[in-house]
Request: fold
Amino acid sequence: MGGRDESFRGLATPTDLTTHRKTPSQEGLPLEHIAGDQYIHEDLLGLTFQISPHAFFQVNTPAAEVLYTVIQDWAQLDMESTVLDVCCGTGTIGLALARKVKRVVGIELCQEAVEDARVNANNNELSNVEFHCGRAEDLVPALVSKLASQQLVAILDPPRAGLHSKVILAIRRAENLKRLLYVSCNPRAAMGNFVDLCRAPSNRVKGTPFRPVKAVAVDLFPQTPHCEMLILFERVEHPNGTETLEPKDPPAQHLSGPQDDTQQESESSPSS
Reply:
């Protein structure tokens, strides 16, 4: 048994399990580091990520690679692009795109995740990235104003409930932001965000609207009814987007009145 024990030396072993009827907030979870590594390390798209206990990271790495690859394809980035990565977690999406763009600006509420993101940028030798800790509704308005001269593309990957309306309204006002990719694990809960992105300008909602261009579901949670939905929004090209939102009559050649129908029937009927 001695040799067998040696082969398992260093492996993590669960020693205690506590269950709760209701999941507490992450900030309220007490943590005590007893032994071994303080972090999990995961490889994704050729990069290595440090993950703290409270930091978010997709649980299905192969499927996350599929999702992030589609984001990269749809974003149409170049070396003049600046990526605004909202709710960036440990920096996975932004860092995966960093070598293809001019700059990445990440925003994340969890302090541990922001610290991980900065470590991950350094460990992967990426210097064109920066990460800010705070609420998206507090940081995004000032950041998009600061980035007004940049060729801006936004990646939004919020929690289940979606983003605060202040974030969406700030993005609507940022006319230099032409393309937006929204990752949602609960599209029904985020529907208010989608509507505000696309609604006609009003006293409350300023700026040219976006329109949904395409969407795809990625199964990050096999054997469950859940998935991640990726939606690409593009800014409406017209200076006043209201005209594209108004219903238009179909072309005249597609219309047929009662007289036309009668005439067609008489022409097609055999003569007596």
